[in-house]
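User: Study the fold:
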Amino acid sequence: MNIKILLVEDQKLMRIGIKSLFSDYPEMEIIGEAQNGKEAVEKAKLIKPDIVLMDIGLHDISGIEATKQILEVNNNIKVIILTSHINEEELNASLIAGANAYVIKDISTDFLMSVIKMVKKGAMWIDPHVVPFIREKNNGIIPSRQVSRSVFRQNHSNLTQREYEVLKLVVDGQSNSQIAKTLTISEHTAKAHVCNIIQKLVVDDRTQAAVKALKEGLV
């Protein structure tokens, strides 16, 4: 069954651009569009999408307020907030409103599609670029949890300590080249570690590995 999506974006060209991303993903279908928050709330009631891709900066009511109103009527709908910048107040408000994901708009197409699939299954996702910001502000949305080596080995004995170090950098949004530089290893080795982590955590990609690490308190 296709994932049914309501696209909320106030700029027509942006809507056209986002819609074009889905042409290579037949398992997902944009079944409706809205150009402002009030229209989004009404269309969500009418067409009952699985996912709402919600632009945060709308001209009437904000995407955050629209999210709150949509979920008050139907909390089975999942909302993915789309934003062009990191803002502490907006992040907090989005999560309090019930958003399932907070995504920076420069996310790659494949990552966005992975996020949609994970959110549809009930996962929560926060852009890895935002995680360090959250911790610096210490606002408690995602606590920085320290896992002892003994507990780590007990729960995830199939990961090596080096892979655990790489996993933490993946969660922080680092690319393979950045991981290589941070750990003073080759980019080829960094890529190999990431591939091993993906296989051992039984996920499809590095995004899902980061989500699983946060969800299980590995970092």
Notes: The first strand starts at residue 3 and ends at 8. The mean pLDDT is 83. Residues 187-200 form the longest helix (14 residues).
